[in-house]
Structures are given as structure tokens and as C-alpha cells.
Design goal:
Elements (H helix, E strand, L loop, with lengths): L4 E3 L15 E5 L10 E2 L19 E3 L5 E5 L6 E5 L10 E7 L3 H4 L5 E7 L7 E3 L10 H9 L8 H13 L3 E3 H19 L4 E7 L3 E5 L6 E3 L7 H15 L4 H13 L9 H12 L7 E6 L16 H13 L3 E7 L6 H11 L3 E4 L4 H10 L2 E12 L3 E4 L9 E10 L3 E8 L2 H6 L9 E11 L5 E13 L2 H6 L3 H17 L3 H17 L7 H40 L4 H12 L13 H5 L1 H12 L10 H32 L4 H7 L18 H16 L4
Parallel strand pairs: 1-22, 3-7, 8-11, 8-14, 14-15, 15-16
Antiparallel strand pairs: 2-20, 4-5, 5-6, 7-22, 9-10, 11-12, 12-13, 17-19, 17-21, 18-20, 21-22
Helix pairs in contact: 2-3, 4-6, 4-10, 5-7, 7-8, 8-9, 13-14, 13-15, 13-21, 14-15, 15-20, 15-21, 18-19
Bound molecules: zinc ion (ZN).
GO molecular function, one term: zinc ion binding
Protein name: Sec23/Sec24 trunk domain-containing protein
Organism: Paramecium sonneborni
Length: 701
């Protein structure tokens, strides 16, 4: 509770948004603990408001009968129920077993973790790192083994030495290497701690390679197939059981080997990869997990985000996953615009997490994601307030004092927060309530869920809270951390609905309230907690303001572009000319989109000249293609950063990059290209802000 006391005070309509301590949070971590107070029958419900008979219900036993009469403490309805005395709750918290293990779950495999890894060209972008990342020291030998047949035998010792040198002074490391190292660590950890888990692998670039647990021949999907959801589902579904049958204990080393052989090039067919990964994950028990790891914009096949048309694709996929109790988490690597706002829908539907990390720090985040596993699926929440109270700031409630929500998956860190207040005088009058008689009021939380054993349960928590009509009294008993969670969560929720201005105002009002209220801050512990929170809130506040500014810019841009729609093409062409003063480089704009998709075609030769002896065989185009793989992306990234710099100077700084992609989809192609220089681009900042909002929305700070 936000305070030890519920504050009962009439509020006029202009005070509606004034802060007070009438807040409570619901933490779900308890559902993972062993729990003894389990009753093996259905609960007794109030026939009017569906509140569950609880420890505080005053029961009148009818003589010579098994019936009792009790007045519902929430709605004052008089109930008559047949009751077995041993099933009368004795504690605030009670659990009811509704259904023993669900048949479907019994035949399923263990829970699985599917790594869905981006191996598109941008993953070869290197990052400067300080200190060593735990890289596999044999990497260079493997690279050498793969390449040596293309290298003139007399040059081989020289090349090997060079690779060895490179490995020794790890000051640059590619994103792919970082990801691989991090996943290897996770696999080793799982082998030790959860050897029964099944780990699967799916990679994506121009094509999707579905490895499963690594025991079978991988399935490759490409070309037209990437646009056919049903076909992908059918193919993977037919094979998913065979591909996901071996535990990590048995398959771990094979999977690690597969990882190490991954190469990075091409585009980013994230959508079809996800469809495949979801089919694999369905083989496992509810609570299985997909971890997407990407640094770029999905731009090929289903769910391509080049335009604006595929947003629903991810939402629907999220829905399908949530129904099966599968969590999808997103790990994006700092550097490229990723449209986290769209992919975020997928993650939010399944209660996964979004993490945006520097490549070299990715390991810890994988660990956090894997450890924050599902503890309940198909979760439904119902909160009942006394009929004198109503929820504040909630839409579409059938009854003002009862909230019902389908939550889907929950993890240990899932927290929800709510606000309440006294109903208006008119409404209290209609209900015939005298608040002076309400010395205490009941709150009840019901969580219906399926636990990890596949049992369907209802956890009920009922409590009585003292009331006061004196705000000072309530504030003196304030629980500031509860209020902090609410500030963060509600601000982020408003923002995610697009109400940025409202979010900013809400955030400011409440933060000010909690920081400067003299009663709340008369307590030393509260002061310390507030001080700590103010730093968190500053970060949140900046993200909100940035988003608001972007929103306004986007509006302005839309207005301008509507007026000047016909002139648009001309101005783009003009910019193209301006930005290529020499006309000799590879700056590419909408008209020559084709070139963008194959940056190698223009860059191979220059790379070859600069690079080492690999070039020896470049007379043969086939061999050339192979040998340039590991290095061509370096040159393309150089070219791309050059291009982006020019585009930024000429275009992106004028308007927000997001509004630009919405208006002019050809531009967005740029963002999936290798680009070591885009840390400071607007698009990346927007991803950062969205990640911040997501993070605070989950109140996990
Ligand atoms: Zn009732």
C-alpha cells in the first residue's frame, strides 16, 4: 500500500489529478514460492460482486444446517452458502487448487530456450572495447581453417600470424563475436544449472536457418518462402519435435559449435525467423522462452519494417506466443535503429523484456533474461475495492471498484500498480454510504493462473486497511517505494499510449509531491529513498520529454509534408545532388535502392586492395564471394558510415528520423546497413528512450 492508511476525502473534479497516497502495488514474486495454505475446493463467491469469502468475512451459522449467512464486506450483499468449516480461510493469503495438471502439458518436453540470432551484415560491425571480453581463444584458428583453402599456401603462415595477432590484442570485437561469447556462457551455465532444458537455435539474415537443438540437419528457408507464414509454420511444425528433443546436457557442445560457425552478412529477415522460433518453442512446456538478438531493422520477408505496414504482424505473433505461455525477449545492440516501439508490442504481449546493450556487456543481460523466467501463465487478475471506492486513471471499467485484467505470462519481477479514491458525494449518497462509519476498508486481489507444474490455481489476498479523512495522517505513513513504482509505471503507460504531454505532467506532479511533501519527508528513510528515486525519475523524465518533442516534430512534419506532398520527390533529388559534391562515391538515395541492398558489389574491390593476401584468388567470382565474406563488411561499414554522415547532415537533423521513415519509407533502408558511426543518430536515441520507457513501465529499477 502507498500508505498504512487509506485516505477518504472528497475530491472536486479539478482536483482529480492531485497526487495522494492512495496507491497500491501487486508483486507476483510470491507465486513462485512454495505455498502451504492451499484449499482443494472452489472458493465461495459473493453472489453479487464475486469477491471471495475470506478471513475477514463475518459468518453467521444457521442452526442445524450446514449453511452460513454472511454480509459481503465489499458490497454488503447478504450471501447464504453451504460451507465446510475446514475450508474457511484463516489467513490473508489463500490458494485454491482449481484443476490438477493439465493433460496437454504432461506430454510436452521440458521448457526450452530458443536463441534467435541476427547474423545480418551489420553484426560484423566492430566495437572498441577496453579490457578483454571472454572470447574463445580458438576463434582465430577456426577462422583460419575456414579460409585457408582460399589462401595461397605460401601466404598462409603470414595470414595465420596476422589472425593470431588480432586475437591477442582484442581491442576491437564484432557484435556477432560478443553475442556468441555471451550465448556460450549461458549455454555452459544452463548445462550446469538446468541440464534438462532444451536449447534451440535459429539464425536469420537473407535466409533463415533453423538448427533446433543441433541434432538434426538444419532447415533453411529463403526467397519467396520468407513471405509465407503458413508455409513456414507447416515446415517447422512437421519437424519441431525431432528438432527439439535433446536436452542441453546432451546437445550443448554441438550448439556451441554451431554458434561458432555462424557468419554474418546480408539483410535482416527477423519476422520469418520469429515465426520459426515460435514453432520450435511450442514443443516445450509453457514458460519456454525466445530470446531475439538483433542490432538492426527487420527488412526482409514477413514483418518487414521498412515501411509502416507490418506493425500488426508483431502484435499478433506476440498474442500467439502469450497464449502458449511463451515469453519473447528482445536484446538489441546499441548502434542501429531497431524500431523498438514496434517490436516492443511483441515483447509486452508476452511479458518479456527489452534490453539495449553495448555489445561487450551482453552476457549479463542474457543471464538476467534467462533467470527472470515465467512463474505463471494464462494469468488473470481481479482486484476488488470496497464499493465506496473507485479506481483512478483506469479506462473501460464495468464497475468503478472492480478491475479485471488478462495478464498472460508473469515473471518474478512483474509488478502492477493502481490508484484509488473515494467516490463522489452523489454516488455515495445513492449507495447509502456514510464514510464516517468506514473505520477500515477491505481490499481483495485474485490471481487465477497456471503454475509451472501445470496446475490451475487461484491465489487470493485480502487485507483490511485503516482509513483517515486527514491527508497528513495518510502521508505520515507513506510507503514511498510503492509510490515510486506507480510514478514510473503510470508515466510510462501514458507515454506508450502516445499521451506524451499527459505523461510529462503526471510525472512532474507526482515526483514533486513525493520529493517535497513535508509529511512524507519527515521520515528519514523516506528521504533517502526519495533521493535515490529522484535520479531514476530524472532519466525517465528526459525520455518522456524527448518523446514528446519527437511527437510534436512528427506532427509538424506531417503538416508540412501534406502541404508540399508534390514537391517531395524533387527536394529529395536535390539533396542527393548536394550531398555528393564529387559525384564519385557510393551515396545512394531512393532512386538507386538496389545498390543499397548489395553494398558488397561496390565495396569488394577496395576492400580487397586494402586487405591482406586473401585477395589472391579473386579472379574466380565464386571463390571471391567466399573469401571476401569475413572482411567485406568492414569496408561496407566504412562506406555506410560515410553515407549516413552525409544523410544526417543533409536530412536527418532537420526532422526527426522516425517521422522521416514514416513519411518516406525509402529512407529507412539506410538504417539496416552496417554503420559503426550511428551511436549518435536520432534513431538510436529514440530506441534508447523507448527502452527507458519500457524499463520504467515494468518498474524494474
Ligand atoms: Zn460482494
Amino acid at each position: 500500500m502507498g500508505s498504512g492508511k487509506a485516505y477518504l476525502k472528497q475530491r472536486s473534479s479539478d482536483q482529480k489529478n492531485d497526487p495522494d497516497t492512495n496507491i497500491f502495488t501487486i508483486k507476483f514474486s510470491d507465486l513462485a514460492q512454495e505455498f502451504n495454505n492451499t484449499i482443494h475446493v472452489d472458493p465461495y463467491y459473493c453472489s453479487n460482486c464475486r469477491a471471495i469469502l475470506n478471513k475477514y468475512s463475518k459468518l453467521n451459522f444457521i442452526e442445524n444446517s450446514s449453511e452460513v449467512r454472511y454480509v459481503c464486506e465489499f458490497c454488503e450483499n447478504v450471501n447464504k452458502v453451504k460451507i465446510d468449516k475446514k475450508n474457511i480461510p484463516q489467513n490473508d493469503e489463500i490458494q485454491y487448487l482449481i484443476q490438477s495438471e493439465i493433460e496437454e502439458n504432461k506430454i510436452k518436453n521440458e521448457k526450452s530456450v530458443i536463441f534467435c540470432i541476427d547474423v545480418s551484415g551489420s553484426m560484423s560491425t566492430t566495437t572498441k572495447i577496453s579490457g578483454k571480453v571472454g572470447c574463445n581463444s580458438e576463434n582465430y584458428l577456426q577462422e583460419y581453417e575456414m579460409l585457408k583453402e582460399f589462401i595461397d599456401p605460401k601466404d598462409r603462415p603470414h595470414y595465420l600470424k596476422k589472425l593470431q595477432q588480432k586475437q591477442k590484442n582484442v581491442s576491437h570485437i564484432s557484435r556477432k563475436q560478443c553475442v556468441i561469447t555471451a550465448i556460450e556462457q549461458q549455454i555452459k551455465m544452463l548445462q550446469e544449472k538446468n541440464p534438462e532444458k532444451v536449447v534451440g537455435l535459429v539464425t536469420f539474415n537473407n535466409e533463415i536457418v533453423v538448427y533446433g537443438d543441433g541434432s538434426q540437419q538444419p532447415i533453411v528457408l529463403s526467397g519467396e518462402q520468407l513471405h509465407k507464414e503458413e508455409e513456414i509454420k507447416r515446415i517447422i511444425n512437421q519437424n519441431s519435435k525431432q528438432m527439439m528433443q535433446n536436452s542441453i546436457e546432451k546437445q550443448g557442445d554441438t550448439i556451441i559449435k554451431r554458434f561458432q560457425q555462424l557468419r554474418e552478412d546480408g539483410q535482416t529477415a527477423l519476422g520469418p525467423a520469429l515465426v520459426s522460433a515460435l514453432e520450435l518453442a511450442k514443443v516445450g512446456k509453457p514458460g519456454s522462452m525466445i530470446i531475439i538478438c538483433t542490432d538492426g531493422l527487420a527488412n526482409l520477408g514477413l514483418g518487414s519494417l521498412d515501411g509502416d505496414s507490418n506493425r500488426n504482424f508483431y502484435e499478433e505473433l506476440g498474442q500467439q506466443a502469450a497464449e502458449k505461455g511463451i515469453i519473447i525477449s528482445l536484446v538489441t545492440i546499441k548502434g542501429e535503429g531497431c524500431k523498438i516501439d514496434t517490436l516492443g508490442q511483441l515483447v509486452e504481449k508476452t511479458n518479456g523484456s527489452i534490453t539495449r546493450v553495448a555489445p561487450e556487456k551482453i552476457g549479463q543481460d542474457f543471464e538476467n533474461i534467462i533467470n527472470d523466467a515465467v512463474i505463471g501463465t494464462q494469468v488473470e487478475l481481479e482486484v476488488t475495492l470496497h464499493k465506496a471506492l473507485q479506481f483512478r486513471g483506469e479506462d473501460n471499467l464495468q464497475q468503478q471498484n472492480i478491475i479485471k485484467r488478462y495478464i498472460g505470462n508473469i515473471t518474478r519481477t512483474t509488478v502492477l500498480s493502481f490508484e484509488y479514491q473515494l467516490k463522489s458525494i452523489e454516488e455515495l449518497g445513492k449507495l447509502n454510504i456514510n464514510i464516517n462509519q468506514l473505520k477500515s476498508i477491505p481490499f481483495q486481489i485474485k490471481v487465477t493462473y497456471i503454475n509451472l507444474k501445470g496446475q490451475k490455481l487461484i491465489r487470493v489476498f485480502t487485507t483490511l486497511v485503516q482509513t483517515t479523512q486527514n491527508i497528513d495522517e495518510a502521508e505520515k505513513e507513506a510507503q514511498v517505494d510503492v509510490i515510486h513504482v506507480r510514478i514510473a509505471q503510470k508515466s510510462a503507460q501514458l507515454a506508450k499510449q502516445g499521451n506524451y504531454q499527459e505523461a510529462c505532467i503526471y510525472n512532474q506532479n507526482w515526483d514533486q509531491y513525493v520529493q517535497s511533501n513535508q509529511h512524507i519527508n519527515s521520515n528519514h528513510i523516506n528521504q533517502q529513498k526519495n533521493h535515490k528515486y529522484s535520479k531514476h525519475n530524472a532519466k525517465l523524465s528526459i525520455a518522456l520529454k524527448n518523446q514528446e518533442a519527437r511527437c510534436q516534430l512528427s506532427q509538424q512534419f506531417k503538416e508540412t509534408s501534406n502541404e508540399k506532398q508534390n514537391d517531395n520527390d524533387k527536394s529529395i533529388n536535390l539533396n542527393k545532388q548536394q550531398s555528393t559534391p564529387g559525384g564519385e562515391d557510393t551515396l545512394i538515395f531512393p532512386s538507386s535502392k538496389q545498390n543499397i541492398k548489395n553494398p558488397q558489389s561496390t565495396s569488394i574491390k577496395t576492400t580487397q586492395e586494402k586487405e591482406n593476401s586473401i585477395q589472391k584468388n579473386n579472379d574466380n567470382p565464386e571463390v571471391n564471394k567466399e573469401t571476401t565474406r569475413p572482411t567485406d563488411s568492414i569496408s561496407s561499414s566504412q562506406i555506410w558510415s560515410f553515407q549516413n554522415k552525409k544523410i544526417n547532415e543533409n536530412q536527418m537533423t532537420k526532422y526527426d528520423s522516425n517521422s522521416f521513415t514514416k513519411q518516406e519509407s525509402d529512407f529507412s533502408i539506410i538504417k539496416d546497413k552496417p554503420n559503426s558511426n550511428s551511436e549518435s543518430s536520432n534513431e538510436s536515441d529514440e530506441d534508447q528512450d523507448f527502452t527507458t520507457l519500457f524499463f520504467y513501465g515494468k518498474a524494474t529499477f
